[in-house]
Amino acid sequence: MAEYETRLSATGLEKSFGAHKVLDGISLAAGLGDVVSILGASGSGKSTFLRCLNFLETANAGTITIKSDSVTLGAGPVTEEMKRTLRLHTGFVFQGFNLWSHLTVIENVMQGPVHVLGRTKAEARERAEALLNRVGVLERKDYYPAQLSGGQQQRVAIARALAMDPDVLLFDEPTSALDPELVGEVLKVMRGLAEEGRTMLVVTHEMGFARDVSSRVVFMHKGKVDLDLPPTEAFGSGATEQFRQFLSNSRH
Fold it and tell me: Which of 88, 197, 217, 245 has its CA 20 to 30 A from that of 239?
């Protein structure tokens, strides 16, 4: 059996907004090729947790390690350079796509590699075309985001995240802004990435994806990890009372 290679770990993450504690000592690790589905009711802290991993929010305490780079929060100032170093390890896919409206599809995907990674435009274009082909929207490369369906926009957003060659992909409810008939095309791409062995943390309400594609299911409740198990156990005998209640409410 291959040695477990940790790609990302969060230890004791805490985050408060004023007097409201959103993350209450969250600890979680993901190894190479792990697909971790993060479930929880609205307000459980799951999106805040993901945003803290990418420093879109800064946690008040705890340690984040991605590959060999580590940042401890609350022990001193966290510099922009420290944030940038960790951020370069991750690709973030937002609920609302967050594409640049004034750039074409291919320009959206090329932007990061050229301006952050220092790639030539020719290198970035070749890679962008390959990735757009990978997610099934190459024929739309010269369109603007407003000319695409929501599903197409989200697939472009996934290509944009992949273009940065991240060690970990972070998905924040990537299908929740889509019309129901467009959800499948995005989940198909995500399933393909999982089959390629990509390390992924996915905040999602898609129970089928969590059950069938994940290597682990994490259930968050009131800012804490209530459950962290393989899906067969999480959806079976290992389910906590809180998770069973959540699943029952999700079916209505």
Answer: 197
